[in-house]
Amino acid sequence: MRTLITGGSVLSMDPAVGDFASGDVLIENGIITRVAAHIDAPDAEVIDATERIVMPGLIDNHRHTWQTALRGIGADWTFPDYRAAIHATLRPRYRPEDVYLGNLLGRLEALHCGVTTMLDWFHCAEGPEHADAAVAGLRDAPGRSIFCYGANYGHQGSVEAEIRRVHRELDDERGPVTMAFGLRGAEDTSIETVAAELKLAAELGLRTSVHIASDGTARPVDDLRRHGLLEASTTFVHANGIADDELRMLADAGSSISISPDVELKMGFGWPMTGRALAAGLRPTLSVDDTPAAAATSSPPCAPPTLSSEAWTAPYVPATCWNSSPSTRRPPVGWRSAPAASPRARTPISSCCARTTSPCSRPPTQRPASSPQATPASSTRSWSRAARSSATGRCWVSTCRH
Ligand SMILES: [Zn+2]
């Protein structure tokens, strides 16, 4: 079977092939066999790509897909806000069916944005049924996905049995959904736990990913190096605040980093590490991370055909793969001090939202008497929340100050 994609702006990403303002791509039996300014293939099925971009699919190597339905509720949150609202309040109420829908819709949304391969960094591990629902959501959508599974935030016990169980389900490298191991990291557990999880990952042949950061006082990468725990198969997410010599350690180990610039800038993680990572010899990748921090708007009418809300409203374009690198600094405040979720009966997420919102007494369009720029940070935040509530007349979560 031959397919000819014709008339598009071709970005081959291959210097030997080059780019074409208007070009053709010939696919034969599922393999690209030729890229040129013009290709004659009279027997091929023709796809007219005029005024469209033709390029390899994007790869997002770090996205918490289960949060898709929460898009935009925390576009002005700091990381402590996010942790309290999402992980201490909403996540414990997620049912497996909520996870399924989040992953299904999130995977479809990613594909709509041009992301053909996506790593789902799953940290809504409330139970085995949640993991199964997450995998089902990925499987029910087109595109290639990597289910990055590990312990839930705050869990200190072993997850070996659960990792082995899910691995048996996903032990097919040719399948549309494969598996990686999401590590907790030494800062949330212990160096012994990191060693045990890396050992398990090596036994099962799983790549690993871990969130990491520093406020400038800790040296988490050096700690791992001294314990012999820097692996080429690990991607360090964020890495803001990591010292230059630690970035070189990652490069020497062949590790990779994933930068999420939109979330890192909004949540106060620090400057994205792209430049410093490149200088250290790393080849950074980019990722979306969490969608609650993303803008809530849908695609603008003028959005390019290969981009929609996420890629359009933020400067993150998931790139190269899983084989490059960077990371994030752990936020200086709140990372550890966010309140733990109290045990409670699991209730539908819709009920939860009803309880965690409250009527906004200030008219949504009313601006504070003084300019936001001239007011203390707390007043500015209250105003921004009031403005953001204009669509519903409600303010989200208990952090609303009016
Ligand atoms: Zn993340």
TrEMBL record:
Q: Which named protein is this?
A: Amidohydrolase family protein
Q: Where is this region: Disordered?
A: 323-386
Q: Name all Amidohydrolase-related domain ranges.
A: 53-289
- Biased composition range(s): Low complexity: 336-351, 367-386
Q: Name one GO molecular function term.
A: hydrolase activity, acting on carbon-nitrogen (but not peptide) bonds
Return the InterPro entries for the record.
Amidohydro-rel, Metal-dep_hydrolase_composite, Metal_Hydrolase, MTA/SAH_deaminase
